[in-house]
Amino acid sequence: MSTFILPNARDAGGLLPLSRRRLLQSGTMAVLAGAFSTPLMAQEAPKKGGVLRIAAPFNPSSLDPLTGGAGSDHMLLYPLFDTLVDFEPATLAPRPGLATSWEFTDPKTLVLTLRQGVRFHDGEVFDAAAVKAHLDRARSDPRSSVKGDIASLESVEVLAPDRVALHLNRPDTALPLILADRAGMVTSPKGVAEKGQRHDREPVGTGPFKLQTWNDNDVVVMVRNPDYWNPRLPHLDGLTFRIITDLNTGLRSVIAGENDFAYRLNPQQKFVADRTGAGKIVVASNPTIADYHLVFNYKREPLNNVKVRQAINYAIDRDAFNKAALMGLGVPAQTMLPPGYWAHDSALDNYYAHDPEKARALLKEAGFPNGVDISFFGNSDQASQQRHEIIMEQLRQVGIRTTLISGSNADMYQRFMIRGEGDMIMTLWTGRPDPSLPFLLVYGENGFNNAGKVPPPPELAAAQIASQTEATEEGRKRAFAQLEKAALDHALSAEIAFVPGIEVYATRVKGYEPNLLGKPKLNGIYLAD
């Protein structure tokens, strides 16, 4: 089994610096270091101009970072919005973004010093007042999908045009990296006020690109922001995302030169690309903290019964899934934290070993001696259908009968997560910069992946708070062990396998850096002659 180690590396924003020696202190880390080394090698001076053509497998759920929920949105949000805190691609260690520095002046006060000379796409000045307006909307807007992310935020105080204080209701050492995700993607107060819900489709950020066109399920066109605060970026004149939900078609479009970049490919496409794209494209495969998992709506029968959820976990043969669906390139999962990751408790690595007899016994104890029927939601593309069939057959063997309901990623998300339809859905959870956030978003009462909005068990809620309030890495590690154990005991999801980030791109595409989230950031790319 492949593993990798990621230290809880922190910077001057209340955290500790990361050294290369520490990063490479494990032998298994050499795999990760090698995987991320190539894009960082010295290259020719970036060329200006050109449009990067991208085969995108999903239509966005929203281009307002505070109202969308799909993890696949990030690839389109990153060009439009800077985050208050950024992260190092290979380690997820925090680094300056729209905030140039930050510090906890006391355990419940985080002060951000903001970058000056930044303007939103509508010409409005980015300053502390704009940050306050954005975070106030994130906390209070009925449509906000990030309320759970920033539950510790009590109020925002403008100290100066370039300084803002975040007053918390409890210590939250995870907050800097939480601000490296959706909650920290600052939107223009004027743009939001003028557009209202139209801001979902007409977003106004500070990023290196501006939205020009979004035609649903067809194309998203972005153009260079000529007033971007970083004079070195962007190199490109624009980005064109062609929505191509069939991954084979997306891959072929890059090999044929119709597009320049494709992401979120499956291992099957990697082998095809290796065989047919030699000399024409670059095939990249890098470790990520993204995993396939089954999300349960445990507000509904029969998945409100913990024994049924445990039975599903015991019924799944994760090794077989990895071999059949991921060509052996994945890593079997037990929790949302991968083996070898700094916050993961290795004692839990085989918690739900494949045990069909145990699964059948649990169904009987739950009052279903003749098995149980559940509705199973998922995406309709060919690769997703294959993954569904593997899981459905494994569940069938223990008496869990599934009815598959499939459609587009956006439609399935809306129906399952927002409307509360269905019992179970298979999704690719793409991870977040701080490891506390996945647990908050998937299991927290207000988490956007908690379909039934069921409050978490008391021990999980306590461990969640501890994972965000502990000031030391060792203290956080203990809290994460309790958090993982509580999620497993209550079988709040079924984690299946961590996946590699597989991208293919034309040889003229330069400057691309993969990241551990498996969510490509395209802002630094340029096109060579």
Give an overview in words.
- The protein is of the alpha+beta class.
- The protein has 3 domains: 123 residues, D-Maltodextrin-Binding Protein, domain 2, CATH 3.40.190; 111 residues, Dipeptide-binding Protein, Domain 1 (Dipeptide-binding Protein, domain 1), CATH 3.90.76; 208 residues, Dipeptide-binding Protein, domain 3.
- Helices cover 29% and strands 21% of the residues.
- It has a 7-stranded mixed beta sheet with strand order 8-9-10-1-11-19-12, with helices on both faces.
- β6 and β7 form a beta hairpin.
- α15 runs antiparallel to α16.
- The longest helix has 17 residues.
- It is globular and about 65 Å long.
- The two termini are 41 Å apart.
- The relative contact order is 0.17.
- The N terminus is likely disordered.
- One of its GO terms (cellular component) is outer membrane-bounded periplasmic space.
- One of its GO terms (molecular function) is peptide transmembrane transporter activity.
- It comes from Ancylobacter aquaticus.
- Keywords: Signal.
- Belongs to the bacterial solute-binding protein 5 family.
